[in-house]
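Need tokens for this chain, all 313 residues.
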Amino acid sequence: MTGEPPMNRRVLSDLLSVHRPGDLLHEVLHFCDLDKRAPEGSVVASAYQTAVRLYQGRFENYCGCDTAYHDFAHVAETFLAMARLLHGARLASESVSARDMAVGLTAAILHDAGYIRKSDESGETGAYYRSEHEERSMAFVSQHGAAIGLTRPEVRDCQSMIRGTIMAEDVNAMSFRSHATELLVRMLSNADLLAQLSSDTYLERLMFLFDEDRHSPRPHYRDLVDCYHRAISFDDLARSRLDRHLDQSETYLTKHFERRWDLSENLYRVAMDRQIQFLKSIVTRNGFAPRRHLRRWGSLQTQQQRMSESIPS
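Here are the structure tokens for all 313 residues:
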């Protein structure tokens, strides 16, 4: 990984040169000041390793990831966004313990585990379980949380965080075990959306979202172009949700980028704005075709290849 961002660049994807899945884990442990030999760092490393094995098809009784939108790259980017929010909250004098970080990061890396099919399950791909994937993710954490190093109350907190990522769920109406749990739920609700909408290959990845939709029991989109048009209204919905569920998000992220990269802006918001502006400019063209009008297919392929590598235990 590079230690510093390139000069005069303000692009989120340029901050880290990720060559293998373990690079993201190393970055998060570094700026969160977690040692993987210590209890809290060990939990984070164990959860991350569990996710890598699960998505790569090396976890007993599971098939591995076969959904190209909800893949390991997405959960790893959610993990990174969650860590940045946690780090920024600490810098803003929010009471966030190392244990809070470990539990929140575990929920982040496993929040979409429900898309992974078990070996004895039917369905062409994990997209078949789209409508119930959050409940399935919660069940996965319940079954494997102790092996990762979580206590029973922490497993329940992780389940609350995953529930908060359901788009139909109003986090403001949920009840929480503690203030710390509430903060973590709100953070993961935001991190999940930030990771998607800020990705430099988000627009290309919408083709994969459309493919997942086609393999789900109740498709949402009429066709591929409809998927891209509806991404604009989803952006509006997501931004409203981000502001409603964690109004300190801008402060936390700005403080993180200031401390970690000496940058004075929230690069997630910058990336999201660029993506939606470009999307609006291309979907109105006559004969709009994603394959022709989008440009980052090579970057997407490289990202997928790098994130499919194993990391040492």
